[in-house]
């Protein structure tokens, strides 16, 4: 009886929500067979709002000095008059045993959530209103995505990709994920001894994602794989932890092994590098600590205001949609929620996101590839970091003693406390170099790093690109319709644009009584960003495989979802 009522509700949802959208009968049938009330409600109501937001994105002109006052009240009329600290609403969340976070409830550039918005956010996770019932129905085309406006391009919720020839199906395109895509973050983190202990005969490069001990919901197979690459950047083998089997190119089960690896990589980077490290640790901490510890006219807050623009709103949205039990992320994966918490916990403990990018230990063979222009994640990442570091050092020099006053040191200590217990802990403050490295790494993370790990549209616009789960016993090398739609919704939310980094911000820097040196420092930074952009584009034109992620011309000033 319960299943009958559930199925009737699914059919009613399709007819009620999508009856007037003019979608194909095939899409409607797929939704009836492979959807659920929450998924159907979401795909019927959200894509248009994403499209509308991207038609009129936030602009640098909307960042104004006079709007920045959260957490403080000015005691006079002049820019240099003192500020008095006020209360700011905060919400503390215990995400996992070792990982808790505090997110502000307000944003300088975004009003508070209304009671209705808060109610809707809670309602979609209500198990009675929207029970979580998994389905495994498949399609081999992107018709359903385009019907529901969750595809890429004009009139769709996901902008057209700036990448080409990136279908991820051939062995060469699959390997590109790891040397020229988001998987580069995992490859660069490889233990230097890994190739000696994990089948050195298969090549010098290894990506290990040992998730096989984590439980999954009924109907799905376990995660966990190890991917090997040869010295010429080609995948040489994939080890399936659940099956305890290593498969090489051309052998039976090779396409299924590649699908397993794509699912593991996409999910792992999305949860760890993107959600936990970039949003909930770096962006959230920088926003919170600069707001509560630095008055609006402090030079450090002035600098970080650009790089934390609307981050409170974004991080609240990301948390609500991606972290709780029965959230969209939980529903789109195969994990039990206990397993989700273990992934969050492991992500927190293993974080080295505050470690300055150029200081990280990297496999010497990858360094050699980088020197040859064949691993631009490292070479162009370091080059961009150095541009940012020069800018931050110039800013600190122009700020003078104020840049290292007691309030600045309090901010540094607040950030250091956030890092305690993680793999890399911010060192005790010793001087200006420590502050420069911290602020530079914050900026690097919310701009370049986020552009790479948060650029997920390529992975969701077809069912055979990637996904977040695999049905047990399935021979398909594509994601099921239910998970496909939920991951597409996540991808669409990440596509909402913040202001571009390479913009003048005339209403902020040097405006409203702010010192003129801000304008000089920022203008110089933009010039150097343009030079770096030109260098990246020139290098990309000579490569056999494109890598456009670290072009500063593509960076936003702060994190979108």
Structural description of this entry:
- The protein has helices at 2-18, 25-34, 37-45, 47-55, 115-123, 143-147, 171-179, 184-188, 194-197, 254-293, 299-307, 311-322, 328-332, 337-349, 364-371, 376-399, 406-419, 432-453, 457-460, 481-494, 517-542, and strands spanning 72-74, 83-85, 90-94, 100-104, 205-209, 225-229, 235-240, 245-247.
- The chain is of the alpha+beta class and 561 residues long.
- The strands form 3 sheets. The protein has a 4-stranded antiparallel beta sheet with strand order 5-6-7-8, with helices on one face. It has a two-stranded antiparallel sheet with strand order 1-2.
- The longest helix is centred in the middle third of the chain and has 40 residues, at 254-293.
- It is globular.
- The two termini are 40 Å apart.
Short account of what is shown:
48% of the residues lie in helices and 6% in strands. The chain has 21 helices and eight strands.
Question: Descriptors for this entry?
Answer:
561 residues; alpha+beta; Lipoxygenase-1, domain 5; four-stranded antiparallel sheet; two-stranded antiparallel ribbon; 8 strands; globular
């Amino acid at each position: 009886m319960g299943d009958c009522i559930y199925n009737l509700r699914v059919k009613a949802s399709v007819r009620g929500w999508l009856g007037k959208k003019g979608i194909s009968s095939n899409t409607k049938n797929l939704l009836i067979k492979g959807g659920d009330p929450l998924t159907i409600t979401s795909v019927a109501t959200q894509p248009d709002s994403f499209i509308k937001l991207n038609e009129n994105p936030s602009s640098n002109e909307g960042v104004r000095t006079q709007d920045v006052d959260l957490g403080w009240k000015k005691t006079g009329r002049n820019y240099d008059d003192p500020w008095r600290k006020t209360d700011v609403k905060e919400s503390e969340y215990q995400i996992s045993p070792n990982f808790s976070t505090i997110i502000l409830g307000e944003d300088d550039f975004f009003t508070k959530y209304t009671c209705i918005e808060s109610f809707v956010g809670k309602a979609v996770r209500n198990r009675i209103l929207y029970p979580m019932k998994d389905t495994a129905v498949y399609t081999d085309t992107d018709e359903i995505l385009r019907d529901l406006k969750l595809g890429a391009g004009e009139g769709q919720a996901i902008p057209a990709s700036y990448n080409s020839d990136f279908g991820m199906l051939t062995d060469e395109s699959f390997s590109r994920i790891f040397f020229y895509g988001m998987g580069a973050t995992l490859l660069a983190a490889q233990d230097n001894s890994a190739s000696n202990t994990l089948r050195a005969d298969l090549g010098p490069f290894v990506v290990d994602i040992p998730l096989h001990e984590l439980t999954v919901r009924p109907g799905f197979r376990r995660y966990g794989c190890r991917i090997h690459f040869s010295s010429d950047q080609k995948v040489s083998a994939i080890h399936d932890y659940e099956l305890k089997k290593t498969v090489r190119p051309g052998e039976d089960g090779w396409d299924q092994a590649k699908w397993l690896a794509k699912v593991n990589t996409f999910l792992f980077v999305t949860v760890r590098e993107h959600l936990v490290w970039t949003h909930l640790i770096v962006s959230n901490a920088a926003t919170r600590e600069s707001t509560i510890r630095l008055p609006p006219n402090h030079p450090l807050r002035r600098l970080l205001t650009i790089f934390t623009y609307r981050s409170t709103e974004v991080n609240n949205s990301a948390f609500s949609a991606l972290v709780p039990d029965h959230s969209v992320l939980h529903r789109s994966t195969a994990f039990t929620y206990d397993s989700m918490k273990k992934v969050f916990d492991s992500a927190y403990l293993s974080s080295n996101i505050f470690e300055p990018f150029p200081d990280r230990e990297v496999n010497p063979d990858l360094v050699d590839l980088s020197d040859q222009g064949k691993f631009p994640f490292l070479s162009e990442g370091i080059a961009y970091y150095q541009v940012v570091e020069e800018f931050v050092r110039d800013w600190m020099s122009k700020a003078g003693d104020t840049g290292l006053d007691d309030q600045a040191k309090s901010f540094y200590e607040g950030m250091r406390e956030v890092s305690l217990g993680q793999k890399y802990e911010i060192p005790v403050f010793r001087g200006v170099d420590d502050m420069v490295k911290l602020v530079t790494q914050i900026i690097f993370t919310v701009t370049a790093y986020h552009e790479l790990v948060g650029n997920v549209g390529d992975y969701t616009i077809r069912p055979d690109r990637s996904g977040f789960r695999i049905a047990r016993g399935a021979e398909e090398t594509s994601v099921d319709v239910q998970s496909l739609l939920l991951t597409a919704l996540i991808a669409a939310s990440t596509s909402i644009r913040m202001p571009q980094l390479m913009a003048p911000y005339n209403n902020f820097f040097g405006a409203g009584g702010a010192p003129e040196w801000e304008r000089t420092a920022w203008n110089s930074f933009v010039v150097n960003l343009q030079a770096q952009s030109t260098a990246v584009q020139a290098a990309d034109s000579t490569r056999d495989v494109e890598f456009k992620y670290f072009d500063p011309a593509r960076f936003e000033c702060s994190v979108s979802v």
